[in-house]
Amino acid sequence: MDSEIEKMTYEQAVFELEMTVKALENGSVSLDESVKLYQRGVRLSNRCAELLADAENKVSILTQTQGNNLAEKPFSPGREVPESEVPFE
Amino acid sequence: MNAVVSVEELNRYVNQLISNDSELRIVRVRGEISNYKRYPSGHAYFQLKDTRAQVSCVMFKGQFSQVAFQPADGQNVILQARAGIYEQDGRFQLVVYTIQQDGIGDLFRRFELLKNKLKEMGLFDEERKRPLPLLPKRIGVITSPKGAVISDIIHVLSRRFPGFDLVLFPSAVQGASAANELINGIKYFNSAKIADVIIIARGGGSIEDLWCFNDERLALSIADSEIPIISAVGHETDFTICDFVADYRAPTPSAAAEIVMPDKSLLAQDVIRLTNAFRVAHDRTIRDKYSRLNQLMHHRSLSAPKAFIDMQSQRIDYISQKLESSFNRLISSRSDKYSILIEKLRALDPDSILSRGYAYLTNPQREIIDTTTKAISEPIWNVHMKDGTITVRINEHSPDYSNEE
Prior knowledge:
The complex is a heterodimer.
Chain A: H1 2-6, H2 10-26, H3 31-51, E1 58-64, E2 70-74
Antiparallel strand pairs in A: 1-2
Helix pairs in contact in A: 2-3
Chain B: H1 7-19, H2 22-25, E1 27-38, E2 44-49, E3 54-59, E4 76-86, E5 91-101, H3 104-120, E6 139-143, H4 148-160, E7 165-170, H5 178-192, E8 197-202, H6 216-224, E9 229-233, H7 241-245, E10 248-249, H8 253-260, H9 264-300, H10 303-332, H11 338-346, H12 352-355, E11 360-362, H13 372-377, E12 380-385, E13 388-393
Parallel strand pairs in B: 3-5, 6-7, 6-8, 8-9, 9-10
Antiparallel strand pairs in B: 1-2, 1-4, 2-3, 4-5, 11-12, 12-13
């Protein structure tokens, strides 16, 4: 169950959290169920928080390597790109 | 000008008069090039003429980087220039900024033809537009690696969602090879599946500059893409075929970055609000169960457990009130950074139920007692609380007990 939540997109996690709130508000859940819903809801909420957590920006550029494949390299727009790194110009 | 003036003064005065005229500061003129001469200095001099008139033109060396073709006598062109007087000989002249070949009428006709054709094929239909992801994991951008467009996009993304992930497919955005390179970019992102949304972007330009975005094959590969595509080509007033086929049209590259990525702090507020609602709903569920149990206890005249329940109910009321007001404070203080909010979220713990004053009942086999029927059939209850478990022996069930439900 955990790994399933860990793979969720933000949309999925928020949607499920909304559904969990609705299920709880519905009132007809057993104590067992409500504890389970609570635990799942907390994990969903944590998943959302994780997706919004602080992280470094990642910016990369696709460049042509030998054998006509494309490889990713870090890119910063201020830097003038050497001609050899621009595959299609 | 009543005083006698020198020729130089006269020419300068007239030149200033012309230079200060806002209509003449940037003027677009259509005509044919004749007597074209480029000097060793790099400057070019020529006449622009039509059937009835001609005007002298000069184009300075530095402007040639803006010209996409080799000017020559006999060419029909449109040039952008400012008007002025060459003060040394009093000659009226145009100082040219850019020259374009005059095929614009033809381009517009071809644009309309292709637009109508693709429209009839249904490529512009709203039904076939793919929705954009709310929070893309990775944004694919197809544009030039040089220039302001990519840095504008990165700047906006950094502001809206620190920690974004972008991969750039470098492509020419004007000229003969541009359409092919743009198509390669779309195909690459689709086959490698390394982005969940694509932005095709270019800064403003003339209709000739933007012409590669009116390519029929480009339109078809946009339509074929499984990844949703945002088109951000030129300024707000420029429309290309690419804009019509794409799933979303952004007026500028910066606007595309605004559209593709939500504001992180607003999302954090949403999660807080939802988590709050979730906890309130959960507390209410638990409280309802207690109050039902409380009723039962009251009827049964079990005074000791009743006192315990009363105390717990009061604590629950107190805690949920406190919880609500602290969350409301959290939400209303807009200055809170989302990271602070997220820390609070992380503090939520499923095991904290008991520590917040709740308890639950089991029989000695540790099966949960959550209904009155179960309760009345069990002579021994284990009451689980935050610091341990106590065992209650039920000596007497009232004979007139009936399940209230």
